[in-house]
Amino acid sequence: MATTALVDPDTGLTQAQLAARHGLRVAGERPTLVEYSRRLWAYRHFIAAYANAKLVASYSNAKLGQLWQVLTPLTNAAVYYLIFGVVLAQNENIPNFIGYLTTGLFIFNFTQSAVLAGTQSISGNLGLIRALHFPRASLPLSTTVTQFQQLLASMVVLIGIVLVTGEPLTLKWLMLVPALLLQAVFNAGVVLLVARMGAKASDLKQVMPFIMRTWMYGSGVLYSVSLFERLPGWATTLVQFNPLLVYIELARYALLEQPPLLNESLTQLWLVGAAWAVVGGIGGFIYFWRGEQEYGRG
Amino acid sequence: MVDHMHATDEATVALPVLAQERIPTVVVDDAHIIYRVHKGATGGSTPVAALRRLVKRTSAPNVREVHAVKGVSFTAYRGEAIGLIGSNGSGKSTLLRAIAGLLPVNRGAIHTQGQPSLLGVNAALLNDLSGERNVTLGCLAMGMHPDEVAQQAAGIIDFSGINERGDFASLPMRTYSSGMAARLRFSIAAAKKHDVLLIDEALATGDKGFRKRSEQRVRELREGAGTVFLVSHQLSSVRDTCERTIWLESGVLRMDGPTDDVIRAYEAYANSK
Questions:
Q1: Quick check: is B11 in a domain?
Q2: For the complex shown, is ipTM > 0.85?
Q3: Domain range spanning residue B262?
Q4: CA distance linking residue A203 with residue A209, whole number of Å
Q5: How many domains in chain B?
Q6: Do A27 and B30 touch (CB under 8 A)?
Q7: Which residues in chain A touch residue B100, judged by CB atoms under 8 angstroms apart?
Q8: pLDDT per residue over A135-173, tens digit each?
């Protein structure tokens, strides 16, 4: 090339050797896991601001605005109560069925909406990804934060429902806080996982609703978990270790006086819940990081 | 205007001095870039078919591959301003995005000094949010610290001139005219200092007053940056800003040399078509 020929010490070098001689780095190279985590930490303000912005934007066209944050879970609970509590009468052997149902529903909904939004957190933001340079994990993580903010609003509704249906306010309720935090970490991991999968195959969002519905039926949200005890032994064990069932049972244990529970041992519930948070959180993060260079290809 | 001439002269005079020890800032080595584009729904998009594709790991039938850049090589040095010209769809913007590390190369490699920044008008923002919130979000996404954002926010809105006809900064961006939105996007992108600066058609934004302000801003950014790339269809702005020009045609590098020579050849080619 004519331009490189002008430079004496660099003549005869290939492009790659020239780049190496002057310490240039490959554009868009994937950073190490530690470096990536450090950069992500530096972007925490962006993650928070983006999560907030999404939350505001999602209701900005509705007349009732942010009120829907409370109205949506409330309407949801009413519909399911009508079908499973009144029409199918699943409530016969469950004390405080309304409390049982809404707890399960709201806790499950936290993961469900996070996963559904997370599937599109990369593929739905290609414009931003192709325009600016930032750690891509910021996007799925801010999706998780948005859903966590939604959860806090629905928890206010849930506590109201549980109190109205006659549950006493006890110290046990404090257990709800670590349980929700563990679930949030687990969710972040799952969202990172589906975000990378959804970035490659944008048709994943067509399949996701079916997977989530199956997961819901396996988590004892709408009916008594005692139904699972009729399954063969291995299947019951499988359901016992289902992370969502674990988080739902933790919340039911915290809020309700006499909920029917599949897991008898509280220690086991906490251990399984914490293990899922660690495995899901770290696993999802590493899986997402390994695909960092590919986001934005289309 | 006098300032403008002065600044351009300085930039061109400074070049031979820098040329004595030429430090490469961007090395593009036989880069190939292939895009995957979804053509939209063409049947076969049922959940069952989608699941089958996921399991078999085959790509959907409605995906087409576009070979946008085909084996381009060149070296850019510190202190250079390089114009990229070529017809629509010749791969100029794609190449810029690859240099910025936003699009991966499929074959070959692109080496850069530091983190190049792309200055375009297409940076996606949230249309449902107010202009002010978009400024904050855009600055944070460029890696600014919140304190810095708070300091600069008012200046960015002033520069964009969106408040010239009443308080638009607190209104959602979907209420803006396309010119206003583009001006605000440019103002956000131009608020940061850059090592290697890639400018994509950003000089053609907005009305005359804003264009003057943005050209001035780009000149300031150029003085602080090591190397500037400029993609433009306005050959006059390439002639004004760049002393070297690269001509891309259908993803292939046609010519690389002094701006005047390359533009003359390009014009001859464009007229003969």
A1: yes
A2: no
A3: 2-29+76-116+194-272
A4: 12
A5: 1
A6: no
A7: 27-28, 133
A8: 999 999 999 999 999 899 889 889 988 998 888 888 889
